[in-house]
Amino acid sequence: MEGRDAREYVLVPRWIVHVMAIAVLAAIVGSVAAVWFNRIPILVEMGRALDLESPISSPDVVILSSLLRSDAGDRAAAEALRSGASAVVLLGKPFSPDDLVPATESRRLPRLLAVGIPRERIVEVYEGDDLYETMAALAAVAREAGWRRALMISSPNGSRRSLLVARRVLGSDGVSVGQTLVAPDSPERADWWNDDQLRGHVVYNWILLAFARLAGRI
């Protein structure tokens, strides 16, 4: 037995093994090439999948990000007040160029005043180090104010997680939460897929959404 040619024990002819290896390699190269040539449509769909729009009628309060710059969002908030909402919330820690010197108010505040929103109807909720803590702080304010219907006015490429977390946290107190999307003022956001930093932002939001799903927090 030991003296017999080892090739007698190969069950599959070598040429078939070679053909299969080449086919697998070609499939991998083809898949990578297909993804590369279709990367823009794929990225666009990834960005769209991060968003969730769910309008709600007759909100008691409108919620805006303290970081977002959007004239369209400011005007939408003003219109919601004219239609019956009682307040506009600026939510989240305001931007500060120096972490050691936190900002005391959002840079968006004067923009809201400029579109005619009275100062006494703007509620600032700047507490919380992450989205969950921020929503918990908002829930406490909502309980005290008696709000039952809230409308979030958000920017694209990450709004789904914000809405789901808001519904999870505020919903436990019986607050109905909806969301509409508006374009931010930054013109480069129109073709974000061509910008390395903005592409990274979309990927980062996907990671946050995935971990939130896996952890059962949304």
Account of the 3D structure:
By secondary structure, the protein is α/β, with parallel strands linked by helices. Helix content is 46%, strand content 12%. It has seven helices and five strands; from the N terminus they run H-H-E-H-E-H-E-H-E-H-E-H. A five-stranded parallel β-sheet has the order 3-2-1-4-5, with helices on both faces. Helix 4 links the parallel strand 2 and strand 3. Helix 5 crosses helix 6. The radius of gyration is 26 Å and the shape is elongated.
Features:
5-stranded parallel beta sheet; elongated; 46% helix; 12% strand; alpha/beta; 7 helices
List the helices and strands and how they pair.
Layout: H1 14-37, H2 39-49, E1 61-65, H3 71-82, E2 87-91, H4 109-114, E3 122-125, H5 131-145, E4 149-154, H6 159-171, E5 176-181, H7 196-214
Parallel strand pairs: 1-2, 1-4, 2-3, 4-5
How large is the count of helical segments? 7
N-to-C span: 64 Å
Please give the radius of gyration in angstroms: 26 Å
Please describe the biggest sheet, giving its number of strands, its sense, and whether it closes into a barrel: 5 strands, parallel
Summarize the structure.
By secondary structure, the chain is of the alpha/beta class. It has helices at residues 14-37, 39-49, 71-82, 109-114, 131-145, 159-171, 196-214, and strands spanning 61-65, 87-91, 122-125, 149-154, 176-181. The radius of gyration is 26 Å and the shape is elongated.
